[in-house]
Amino acid sequence: MNSLSLTVKDLRAVITGELSFFTVLAIREQAMRYLTNTSQPAFDFSGVAKADSAAVALMIEWWRAASLTKKTITFEALTPSLTSLIRVSNLQEVFGLK
Fold first, then answer.
1. C-alpha span between 79 and 84 (Å, rounded)
2. Residue 56 lies in domain
3. How far lies 38's CA from each of 6, 45, 70, 84, in Å?
4. Structural domain contains residue 48
5. Are 6 and 38 in contact (CB under 8 A)?
6. What is the pLDDT of residues 17-65, one digit of tens each?
7. Among 31, 42, 54, 90, which is most buried by a count of CB atoms within 10 Å?
8. 45 falls within a domain
């Protein structure tokens, strides 16, 4: 099992490692604190080595939390596999994919 971390850098939450069913809980609370304390949350996925459907579920949770507080959330540098999962789930509009 690979590790997963979330580091706030330049007001962005940079995710590094494997974002999977086995690892998402490792950053869930930290990400929710970041969402609460940031007026314009942005998640950077450039360091994600691997992602599965649990990553999409976590992104939906973040999007919902941001929406409830009237914040615009940004998802940056999505990996090709994550983009494919979002398209298969028909969530392109939610995550700003064309």
1. 9
2. 4-88
3. 15, 18, 12, 28
4. yes
5. no
6. 999 999 999 999 999 999 999 999 999 999 999 999 999 999 999 999 9
7. 31
8. yes
Domain count of the chain? Answer: 1
The tokens for 30 are 């930290």
96, part of any domain = no
Q: Taking the model in full, what pTM does it have?
A: 0.92
Rounded to whole angstroms, the Cα distance separating 74 from 83 reads 14
**Closest by CA position to 45, among listed 82, 2, 86:** 82
Categorize the per-residue pLDDT at 73 as very low, low, confident or very high, splitting at 50, 70 and 90. Answer: very high
Domain of residue 23, CATH code: 3.30.750.24
Beta bridge partners of 8: 13
